[in-house]
Amino acid sequence: MSSVHKGRFVVIVGLGLLAVVTLGGGIAQGKLPMNIVVSGQRFTGSVSAVEAQGIQVYPRAAETAADASASIAVHIQQVRLTDLCLSTVAHGVPFLGDVTMGIRAPGDGTTASGITLDAASLGGAITAHDARLGAEVSALGEVSELDPPHASAITAGDSSLAPARVEIISLTATQVAIDKLAMSVEKGAVGC
To answer: How large is the C-alpha radius of gyration of the chain?
Structure first.
């Protein structure tokens, strides 16, 4: 069995931490795309206010590493979030039990564009402008293999949602900028 010398261990850990800080900084400044998918783990998200433009909502199947499940597909062109909180719980971590990873961003400094969100549930008080119900998904633009082309969709222009809570199956965004990003890990199931 080989051993790692103390100096090498410090260099390896230091380089790993530098990579994490660099990637986290790139996401926070909106320079890197963000894709949240945790192998069957769902994220719970809450915000005190959402201001969005270019929204499309319809039912579809969401695939993760664990399985496929029914979802609410939400596409948003531009969004500003106030008091963002995302959390996920890993159950049965050896020696620790349940562990919660959380992402918090207080204030209204979180913006994103090109969001595609698959949600198990979504709720809040909404004000929507230029809302249309009943448009076919195939008429909205590019259709993926997960999208039912003849399903009815809801579309809206400028809209606001406050407060909002969502159970996220997966989320992708072409650009995310987060002011005051704080990530944490704590023992126990402590959600947003």
So the answer is: 19
Beta carbons within 8 Å of 67's beta carbon, 6+ residues apart: 40
Considering Cα of 92, then 96, then 98, then 104, what sign does the dihedral take?
Answer: negative
The C-alpha atoms of residue 85 and residue 44 are separated, in whole angstroms, by 8
What pLDDT is stored for residue 3 in this prediction?
Answer: 53
* pLDDT (0 to 100) of residue 166: 92
Blockwise average pLDDT, block size 10, the chain, 192 residues: 50 49 49 48 90 93 77 93 92 89 93 92 91 83 72 90 90 88 90 82
What six digits make up the tokens of 118?
């698959």
Look-up: residue for tokens 């719970």?
Answer: 44
Q: How far apart are CA 28 and CA 163, in angstroms?
A: 23
How many residues make up the chain in this entry? 192
The tokens describing 33, both together, are 């795309």
Q: State how far the Cα of 159 lies from the Cα of 64, in Å rounded to an integer.
A: 29
Phi, psi dihedrals of residue 94, rounded to the nearest 5°: -50, 135
146: nearest Cα among 71, 89, 88: 71
Phi, psi of 72 (to 5 degrees): -100, 110
101: tokens are 């990873």
Q: What is the DSSP letter of 191?
A: -
**Six-digit token string for 116:** 């595609």
